[in-house]
Amino acid sequence: MTLPLLTVLVASLIGAVSDVRTRKVPNVLVGALLICGFLENAALSGWSGVLGDLAVTAAVLLAGSFAFSFKLVGGGDVKLLAAAAGALAYPAGVSFVLLTLLCGGVLAIGYAALRGRLQATFANVQAATLPLFAGVRPVRPDNGLAMPYALAIFAGALATAAFGAAHLRLL
Asked: Given pLDDT bands bounded at 50, 70 and 90, which one contains residue 5?
């Protein structure tokens, strides 16, 4: 396990606990993770590591801002995901984001099922995604179920640690 991955695991665990308790991810946590990621990548890979960190962070922040604009995910979750992906840099950061999305889907299904809202959740997902394919701005349903997404970010970090070298060879 690398130092950046350990840092992401600890930060995402703290973020998940905070998100579950307060429904917020502290900016100080995200800022600390971002700075630690830059410093660790600079120490491990020099300027190329810092540039890789910046590129991954910017790409995830841009994509996450798009999701945030549709109210699909919270702003703190976007910042935490971007800082964590940046700390892992390329290619681990890309794998981390993909695994986080996969874990998020699995957790969302479980979260909806536990709350007895699985059928309504699938209907809402369909209502929110079909307009995207038609080129129309989707509208978030008023009866949507909000999940603390930092849980998915922590699960994605765990999955990245568990599958480490095996899935990185695919990139």
From this structure: very high
> What is the torsional sign of CA 165, 107, 127, 122?
positive
**Torsions phi, psi of 129, nearest 5?**
-95, -35
Cis previous bond, 26, omega within 30: no
| 170 found inside a domain | no
DSSP 4: H
Instruction: Output the CA–CA distances (angstroms, integers) from residue 163 to 2, 104, 140, 153, 168, in the order listed.
Output: 13, 17, 34, 15, 8
Domain presence at residue 171: no
SS3 string, 102-165, reads: HHHHHHHHHHHHHCCCHHHHHHHHHHHHHHHHCCCCCCCCCCCCCCCCHHHHHHHHHHHHHHHH
pLDDT at residue 140 in the model: 67
Predicted confidence (pLDDT) at residue 6 exceeds the cutoff of 70:
yes
**Number of folded domains that form the chain:** 1
Please provide residue 29's backbone torsions phi and psi, each rounded to the nearest 5 degrees.
-65, -45
Query: Global pTM?
Result: 0.88
pLDDT in tens, 73-123: 899 999 999 999 999 998 899 999 999 999 999 999 999 999 888 888 888
